[in-house]
Design brief:
Elements (H helix, E strand, L loop, with lengths): L1 E6 H5 L8 H20 L3 E6 L1 H4 L10 E5 L5 H7 L4 E5 L6 H9 L4 E2 L4 H8 L1 H10 L7 E4 L5 H8 L6 E5 L9 E3 L2 H13 L7 E5 L4 E10 L3 E12 L8 E7 L6 H12 L6 E10 L4 E7 L6 H7 L4 H11 L11 E10 L3 H7 L4 E3 L10 E10 L2 H18 L3
Parallel strand pairs: 1-2, 1-4, 2-3, 4-5
Antiparallel strand pairs: 6-9, 7-8, 7-9, 10-11, 10-13, 11-12, 12-15, 13-14, 15-17, 16-17
Helix pairs in contact: 5-6
């Protein structure tokens, strides 16, 4: 069976200016992991890479995958001229990119993604929070600033919140544009940033800050029911008005006392949105005895790099069964633990790390961003227990630090 897998950052690196070294690091990690799992399941797989990535043979260890250059490529023509049975797209929801790519391919092959309607309904955070609030889902108290340039409107909304509070764009992916405002002195700086930066032009989400564990749930949905794969810990550096928020990686699986309540909250949320099927990620904050839904990602997420290593089941087969047959497994088994971490490294070491082929390096830094001072590498550490997994991760990290002369 022939399957087409497309990942936005890997296809448009050095072509689309929105693809940064940090975004490429996560995108290529997801692509490589998913391709490996499709190959293991016995599928014939085709993917797209930018010409600049093809020359580095970044998919060499993945297996037998057909690689097509994105230079001058029409995705629609590619799918029309190949006999693909199914397609899977990994792309940002912001600006309608994911729904546009999914919509483009659905006429010619089976889409393994969530429906276009579902993607559209969850990507706009304003619509998302209003719907889950009506559905009585536990979520942080949330309001909206429709016009960030209107200082009076912004201040009126902000007065409804205690500090600290969270600001984020109505349309954004991951940690992009997230600010945590901790003091009154930071409000003026935050408002200035809202007016200045393009990412906030479509509106701003204002949210109470919930102190707890930043987590996510990776799950498979058949459109009406879900089967959780793993609960994952998220390493986040949440910045203020003068800094950036960064997703650094995570640990999977995560075991907490509030896990049952969290999964019930997630299931309740998914049921509110028709067309959420296949692989879905849900971001949430866990407190001692409660969970708060933050966001739905209607696609594969970076945590899959770790999830794939601990699952006994093959995820592409699970996705196929859920989408094609509405079938979900009775139970999911995992083994061991995986830490995954995105490291910032000096740009001038990119080529050396790439050539070294260090074990535990899932994605080396790609030397495609001339003029930048830094680059990113994604590493993992697996172990039967959390301590072993952590030690193995630190061992890889130490090798890189030694390599850099640290």
């Amino acid at each position: 069976m022939k399957v087409f897998v497309f990942e936005f950052a890997s296809a448009y690196a050095s072509i689309n200016k929105t693809v940064t070294s940090s975004i490429l690091c996560e995108g290529l990690a997801m692509l490589k992991t998913l391709l490996k799992d499709f190959v293991k399941a016995g599928y014939q797989v085709t993917t797209v890479l930018s010409p600049s990535l093809i020359k580095f043979k970044v998919l060499k260890e993945v297996g037998n995958v057909e690689v097509v250059s994105s230079q001058g490529l029409s995705l629609k023509e590619l799918v029309e001229t190949h006999d693909f049975y199914a397609s899977y797209i990994i792309a940002p929801e912001s600006s309608g990119v994911l729904e546009e790519k999914v919509s483009l391919l659905t006429d010619n092959c089976l889409s393994l993604n969530c429906s276009v309607e579902a993607i559209k309904n969850v990507r706009n955070k304003m619509n998302f929070y209003r719907k889950i609030r009506r559905g009585k889902v536990n979520t942080p108290f949330t309001e909206f600033i429709k016009n960030p340039s209107d200082t009076l409107e912004a201040m009126k909304v902000l007065k409804e919140f205690n500090l600290p509070l969270v600001l984020k764009p109505v349309e954004g992916v991951g940690c992009s544009g997230i600010q945590v405002v901790k003091s009154k002195s930071q409000i003026k700086l935050a408002l200035k940033k809202l007016k200045k930066e393009e990412i906030y032009k479509k509106g701003v989400v204002v949210q109470e800050f919930i102190k707890g564990i930043n987590a996510s749930v990776s799950l498979i949905s058949n459109g009406s029911k879900i089967i959780p794969l793993t609960l994952n810990y998220q390493f986040l550096n949440l910045g203020g008005p003068n800094s950036s928020s960064i997703y650094k990686g995570g640990l999977t699986p995560l075991h907490v006392n509030s896990q049952k309540e969290a999964l019930e909250n997630v299931s309740k949320t998914i049921k509110l949105f028709k067309g959420l099927r296949g692989y879905v990620g849900v971001d949430l904050v866990l407190t001692k005895d409660a969970s708060f839904i933050v966001e739905i990602n209607p696609r594969l997420t970076t945590s899959y790099v770790g999830v794939s290593k601990v699952l006994d089941a093959n995820t592409p087969r699970l996705i196929m069964d859920a989408v094609l047959k509405k079938k979900l497994p009775m139970k999911i088994e995992t083994h061991g633990f995986t830490y995954f971490l995105k490291l910032k490294v000096p740009y001038n070491f990119s080529n050396e790390i790439l050539k070294s082929r260090l074990e535990g390096v899932e994605v080396p830094p790609m030397p495609l961003f001339e003029g930048e001072k830094s680059n990113y590498v994604l590493i993992t550490g697996y172990g039967e227990g959390r301590r072993e997994a952590r030690n193995n991760l630190l061992r890889v990290k130490k090798k890189i630090e030694t390599f850099l002369g640290g």
